[in-house]
Amino acid sequence: MNRNKRIKPRRRNGLLALSPMLVMAACFVALSFVCGGFSQVPILIVFLLVAAYALLTLRGWSVEERLRVFSRGAGQADLLLMVWIFVLAGGFAATAKAMGAIDATVGLCLSALPPRLLLPGMFTAACLVSLSVGTSVGTIVALVPLAAGLAEGSGLGVPLLTGAIVGGAFFGDNLSFISDTTVAATRTQGCRMSDKFRANLRIALPAALVTAALYAFLGGAGGSAGVERGEAWRVLPYVFVLAAAAMGLHVVPVLGLGIVVAATIGFAAGAFDAVGLFAAIVEGIGGMGELILVSLIAGGLLELVRQGGGITWLIRMLTKRVRSPRGGQAVIVLLTMLTNLCTANNTVAILSVGPIARDVAARFGISPVRTASLLDTSSCIAQGLLPYGAQLLMAGALAGLAPTAIIPYLFYPVLLAVAVAVYIIAWPRALRTAN
Length: 435
Hints:
22 helices, mainly alpha
């Protein structure tokens, strides 16, 4: 008997394929009552339950075939690259902490910024760093480890400070010329990056200014900066990482070299010996274990959704009733956000929706520049609020928080969504222009 012969013909049911996303939402709600709040929900348990359900949605597939699809999704090259980043980020964060970089940086920040300006200051710093390096993940890796120390010294909460950093990271990721989302959005629509930057700025800058003002208001509750100031030279590992990333180096060698720099300074300062260094690196990598498992399970789960026809069905259902330029732009935004929900990757969402968005734009005379801006902005909104996205998973792991504990303080993605809605409603007639 041919073992590869299927018991039943393969069938695709898009609505059924999308149902794991609804099951995930139901699991979060149900477990929040059991665990005493969303911030206490074990995200790994949620993904294990949803993945088990998702395996049942592929009708007409053998058990072995379903597991192969799941494993293929978990083993995607982009996902494994993110895993190596998680490993190196954990090692760098732990090494930098062990040699005193976090205490020194916290001391400098608190001496330079009064508590009232600490929140908007960290948000602005994240905006500028991410605009320079073009990656929200790299910005989060560099700045979030400081959140706990800053919170202790200023009287502000760790989730609040982490939320300010993550929000700022998405501001720059959305606008940077070297961001992968910018490249994907402009290439799929055939427009110049400079034109897309100007269009994005009209949406993102008002949202960022309101966010900074809101953080300034909330920062008034902070206490006095009562922490011991560290030696300034101990901040060099963070300076190196930020400078190297700003020069355009890939985040993997940047983090690897960052570990070397932190270890060298730590040895010179007598902060640890070889055994202490190795222990710190192992502890840092071990702290990323849950994050890595969730990422792999999420990759497999989302591949099951895609293979079952969920994304194709979603695109077809949302595009068949478009009637006006305003409706066309709303569909582009909604389709990008929902696809991002199914892929947990804003670049992949843009690449998936890009061709459809281009057809919708051509039908209603929407300029390629505006379409690219809406694609990039809406993907950042969705990714910025996704508890199983790489950014929030990374931020939660580095800050010692559940990703869901950060979401209530992510003001920037919410205000960015408001800005997009106003942009579409108030100026719907974005006719085709020369690029």
